Amino acid sequence: MTEPDGFRRAAMQWLEKRPDSRVDYSWVSSFEYEGSRIPLMDRQRGIRKPAGFEAALAIRTTFTAAGKLPPYVDAIGDDGLQRYKYRGDDPQHPENIALRNAMKMGLPIIWFVGVAPGSYEPIFPVWVVGDDPEALQFALAVDEGQRFLRPDFGLDEDTRRWAEGRTKQRLHQRVFRSQVLLAYNGRCAICKIRHAELLDAAHIVADGRPNGHPVVPNGLSLCKIHHAAFDHQLLGIRPDLTIHIRQDVLEEVDGWMLKGGIQGVHDTRLAILPRNRLEHPDEHRLEERYVEFLAAPVA
Fold it and tell me: What are the b/e assignments for 72-85, b being 16+ CB within 10 Å?
């Protein structure tokens, strides 16, 4: 069948109502439209084009475990736009043609990004806005505002920085949060609270720094209070995973939250760690951040 009018909009509205932020193949393959079941993801292929459709509907990036190399190297380009590698090295492969057709027709697609074995964070809508056969990759807009940027035209520095910031926020940080919270079993590493809406994925070394990659060993699952205390240098974490509260904060007299939630964790060890030791906080990154904590001026 040819692609029905309104199909993509219906598929994305259905995804918006998903019971969990992450999905698996079984769930996304249950989508139905006008009585027909049309899986949104292909079990084997990275690029999904339902039979009869002219353009790709979705792309997929498989999960890469800590310490492993990803099968495809998708990265942000010099223009701030995300890249997605071709299927193989033939620009005329049917799946590459399907993605190219989505670009020519201006159709939005869904990107399923692996955050754990068999578990994906759906990013949508995404648009294909550039095609580079020499580098065997497409350029993607992961934000509505990026749709009309073209990688084959020079972008001024302000636009490039804005585009890169949006890519990191809409894609990299969302995936980073999912991976970190999954690694820590959805709990704060310090106080063990487990409400996802109260949890953040905190960078140990800040994003944009040489070691500030959005990977689990550079992350900590922290509740919003402990994340803020960590970011504002009220709380430091030593390379041996023990917690250090700044001296003036230890001496402060205030309510029960400060006493129990901040002062009370001084010299204790992180309460939650990932089961996989390769996902534990990186010792060298912790040391780099702890040196900054010790040197930070007291407000």
Answer: bebeebebbbbbbb
